[in-house]
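Lab notebook page, bench 4
Experiment: in silico fold of construct C2
Operator: M.H.
Input chain length: 90 residues
Purpose: comparison with the prior construct
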Amino acid sequence: MQLSAEISLYPLANQQYEDEIWDFVSRVKADKQVSITTNGMSSLVVGEYEAVMQCINREMRVSFDKLGMSIFVCKFVPSDRSGSYEQPTQ
């Protein structure tokens, strides 16, 4: 089953929040089993269900260990929604 996960990261205690968000995005991009598209508000991770969930689980843990207090907001849809996702802003 294909899964789309829309994710927003809010590193609460870090003044360099954009660097931390792009660090998370680049780590997800390194996983060749999933694809990621970004826009100004969130990122969309798409792939097979297990691959998406494993990638998100792994990279959220890295971010929590690195950043401490931070928030992830996620939405999951059981399909490939990448065709309807807004294109990158950076």
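Observations: The longest strand covers residues 2-11. The chain is about 35% helix and 30% strand.
Next step: discuss at group meeting.
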